[in-house]
Structure formats: structure tokens, C-alpha cells
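WARN  no MSA supplied for this record, continuing single-sequence
INFO  ligand: GLP
INFO  echoing inputs
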Amino acid sequence: MNFITVKSYEELSQKAANLIAAQIMVKPNCVLGLATGSSPIGTYKKLIEYYENGDIDFSAVTSVNLDEYVGLDGTNDQSYRYFMDHNLFDHVNIRKDRTFVPNGCATDIAAEGKAYDELIESLGGIDLQLLGIGLDGHIGFNEPDEVFTKGTHGVTLDESTIEANARFFASKDDVPTAAVTMGMGAIMNAKKVLLIANGANKKDILEKAFFGTITPAVPASVLQLHPNVTVIFSEN
Ligand code: GLP
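INFO  complex generated
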């Protein structure tokens, strides 16, 4: 594992964007696994800059996002589809029909999960998976559990996750209590994993996840078994 500590969110965003840009340059038709949350916003801003400067071309890129809230459709400004359109897709030349986000409004979430995994498989898997990390160690919305779940699946969000994500909503009561998330199978099959985290409050969970016991109680700890992981951390 390559654990990089940087001095600022700006530097974190620059380095993460450089790694993603390099992936796109090396393999223009790559499959990017993308993430939401506050951490990747700066990275996406840099990627937009690179695109505007003519340094990268998204025209052959496919993206698959990690997760979506159950019950929110893409027109809802709290949905992760909306987040991706707004923070990245609408500003670069990626083909919208090549951007995939799990459907949180699917009537059968189990069937949606199966279809999403089949889609990822049909794409040949993920070349580079970008991840954030939740304060409880979740990646995507894989919450602490007794097992690691392999496939894309429905989850009930932990109270601490609902509280952490309430900052994005008008009130805590508005935060959906369920989500659909890519499982550990597709994440662990990604050829490269890039996890970004910023803020002093992420230090303890990073320590547990990358230097502690590998356990589904700390979902991100499974990444210790991945052969190509880069972590970029900024305390500020
Ligand atoms: C959400 C997302 C995760 C993300 C996490 C951390 O719960 N589902 O994919 O990693 O938030 O978010 P932040 O980057 O805002 O700390």
C-alpha cells in the first residue's frame, strides 16, 4: 500500500486528480469507479480544469458509481446521480449514457444489485476505483457488519452515517435511512484503488482500517488485502 500524507486539501485533490488523469491518458476507454461525499469534490474540480485545458478527454471513459440513496431519483438534488452530474459529468465530455449510478428507486433492490454487478462484469471490471471513507470505516455504503458482502446490495444506514450526512440535508429527518451500494467484490476486483480522506477526524479510522485488524467491523480494512491501493490523507 502506498500511504501518502499531504499538507492540504488542495494538494490531496491535485494528487488524486493526477492519478485519475494518468489512468485516462494510459487507457482512454477505462472504467472509472467514482465516489460521492465531500472528499472528492476538489478532485473533480481539478479534473474539470484538466479537461478544459485540453489535457484529458473523457469521450471514451465509462464510469460506475459506488452507491445511491434508496428512494431518491436523479432529479432530487440530494441524490448521488445529481451530485455526479453537478460536480463532474455536466462539465466534461463524458457520454452521459456511459455513466452509471445504482438506481435507488428500483422496486426490487436485490434485482438492481444483481444487474449492476452484471454490468460491471460486462465492462471488464473497474480500472481505478476512487473511494472516500466514512467515520465508521464504511466504503461506498458498506457499513460495519459481521461479514463482508460481495455483491451490490441494499443497506440500512448506521445512525452515525445518517448523522454525518445530515450536513447535506435540511434536517437529519430528511436523510434517507437506506441505500444501495456496490459490495466488496467489485471494489476488491478493481485493478487500482485510490482512497482519499481529509480532516483530523479521519485519522483514527484510517489507522484502524490500514494498520489494524482486517475485519468487517471496519469495512475499509479489507483493502489491506488489495494489491494496488493508494491512500492520500490530509489532516487539514
Ligand atoms: C458517504 C458516501 C461514501 C463516502 C462517505 C464519506 O457516506 N456514501 O462513499 O466515502 O460519505 O464522505 P466524506 O467524504 O464527505 O467524508
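The helical segments are 9-26, 41-52, 80-87, 109-122, 159-165, 184-189, 203-211.
INFO  checksum written, moving to next record
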